[in-house]
Structures are given as C-alpha cells and as structure tokens.
Design a protein that fits this description.
Number of domains: 1
Number of strands: 4
Strand content: 15-25%
Largest sheet: 4 strands, antiparallel
Shape: globular
Number of helices: 4
Helix content: 40-55%
Distance between the termini: 18 Å
CATH class: Alpha Beta
Oligomer: single chain
Structural class: alpha+beta
CATH topology: Alpha-Beta Plaits
CATH architecture: 2-Layer Sandwich
Length: about 120
Amino acid sequence: MITFVQCVRRKEGLSDVDFQAHWKRYAEEVERLAGASRAIRCEVSRVLAVPQNLALMVHRATGEPFDGLVEISWRGGAEALQDIARPDAREPIAAMQAHQEEFVDLTRSSFLFTFQEVAFDRS
C-alpha cells in the first residue's frame, strides 16, 4: 500500500482552539480529496493535549509532537499517481493547499509518500 502522509505543525501564535477549528474543516477537505482520488483508506488524527505526551517527550528526549497527521492510502504507487492526477482531484488538492497557508507552518511540517505494510489489523 502507498500512503501519503502529512505531519502538520500549526503556525506560531495559533491557539489550540483555532487550530481545532481549522483542522475540522481541513479534515473535510482531506476526505473530499481521498474520495475524488479513489483512495482506499483515509485517516486524520490530531494530537491529544494530555500529560502523557509531555511525559513521553521528556522521558525520551524527543522533539515536540506534530499537531496533526493525515494519511491517505492507495493499493499501489502507479494507482496513487494516476488517481491524484484525475481531474476530480485537482480542486480538492487546490483547496487543501490554500487552506494550509492559513494555519499550517509548512517549514516545520513534513509531507511524504511511504510504502506501508500492515503487520496486523484487529479492527
């Protein structure tokens, strides 16, 4: 499975409440893109503001967690490239990119394609 992953950090000065409002709208845009590109899976996650995250960061000496994660998956690479090039996908991609400019710190975020193997899935 080929998965497009977005590891998103919010812009400096954007409150958690404002980020959540943007993220909710962004999730809808992501879902539209996933549907238009005939993806087989789409996940949108937001980091939890819980003490356990801070404890992990301190204990493991890691950087700050990302504010949100997006994963859109296709069965294979050729299919993914064809599907995101579909005319139906152009408008959702443009809407997502325009919205990113409003609330995402692109210089501290990461966007990448991965090869994903599911070791097990108990869902």
